[in-house]
Write a structure and sequence with these properties.
Number of helices: 7
Shape: elongated
CATH superfamily of the largest domain: Annexin
Strand content: under 5%
CATH topology of the largest domain: Annexin V, domain 1
Order of helices and strands: HHEEHHHHH
CATH class of the largest domain: Mainly Alpha
Helix content: over 70%
Oligomer: single chain
Radius of gyration: 23 Å
Number of strands: 2
Number of domains: 2
């Protein structure tokens, strides 16, 4: 009886429809990331290097690359696992108010809030340590 069901055209049709449905759901999850990455690349290409540098207001005359710092934050959280030490090192380099400028640039490049993303990546005390090192606490 089971063999008759498996060999029936209706079963094969239902199986094909199910597999197509699963494939479409998978593609639907990938598509927003693809579109977001394409928009980010387009905006970076249009922006060129204008506005990437900011002069630090600490009187030293140093400059910081906002795009580079935003990408460094993203790299520390991209893929499997989070590089907590890289986030702490970046926090030491990007204390307030520079962190707020980097967060604004990150949001324009990645379409997500940097501090919220960091909070998602770090657990409790780790996030408080990050906030302290960046100067938010």
């Amino acid at each position: 009886m089971l063999v008759d069901i498996i060999e029936s055209k209706a079963f094969k049709l239902v199986l094909i429809v199910f597999l197509v449905f699963i494939a479409l759901r998978y593609l639907a999850k990938l598509l927003p990331n693809f579109v977001k990455d394409a928009k980010t690349t387009l905006s970076q290409n249009q922006a060129g290097t204008t506005g990437n540098q900011v002069t630090l207001t600490n009187g030293t005359g140093q400059t910081a690359d906002l795009n580079g710092l935003a990408e460094a934050y993203w790299s520390a959280m991209d893929g499997w696992g989070t590089d907590e030490q890289a986030l702490y090192d970046l926090a030491d380099k990007t204390r307030v108010p520079l962190f707020r400028q980097v967060a604004d640039r990150y949001k324009s490049l990645k379409q997500e809030d940097l501090l919220s993303r960091i909070e998602d990546e770090l657990m409790g005390d780790e996030f408080r340590t990050f906030q302290t090192r960046v100067g938010l606490l």
